[in-house]
Amino acid sequence: MQNIGIKALSSDTERQAGQGRREDLPPLLAGVAVAVGGVGATLALIDLSSPLRGPFVLFFLLVAPAAASWAALRGLTPWGRIVASASGSVAVNLLVAQAMLALHVWSVRGGVVAVTLFSSLTLLLVLLRRARRRTTARRRTT
């Protein structure tokens, strides 16, 4: 039998390894949030009776507009972005619900679709604005 020697990690290497795991956490959490939100929206749109439908749809309705407004508010500090995104998310949901009730077209599916469209449009406008800034910056440098 042959022994394989394993060299102990130094404290600097251990810190760097731990730092790498911490840096991987936000993208992982974002992916989980997208998956949970997508499942919630899908459960609402196909009208599937499940005990997870309520919490997942609520999560989607709160996180989708918050993520869209988070992307649009790059100039704020992180805590300012959190507060503005959370309050903007609640405002979007209240405005969608109020408009649908005033027009007598209230439905869960319609609310999910309206919030999805609003959030998608906001993200699309943010991406277009960033792309325009990049092309303008490239033209100036060349």
Q: What class do helices, strands and sheet pairing give?
A: mainly alpha
User: Count the strands?
Assistant: 0
Domains (count): 1
What share of residues are in beta strands?
Answer: under 5%
Q: Compute the average pLDDT.
A: 85
Succession of helices and strands: HHHH
From the structure above, extract its key features.
flat; 4 helices; membrane; 142 residues; single chain; transmembrane helix; mainly alpha; transmembrane
Written description of the protein model:
The protein has helices at about 10-45, 55-70, 80-100, 110-140. The chain has about 140 residues and is an all-alpha fold. The termini are far apart.
How are the secondary structure elements laid out?
Elements: H1 11-45, H2 53-72, H3 78-102, H4 108-141
Helix pairs in contact: 1-2, 2-3, 2-4, 3-4
Concise synopsis of the structure shown:
This protein has 142 residues and is mainly α. It has helices at residues 11-45, 53-72, 78-102, 108-141.
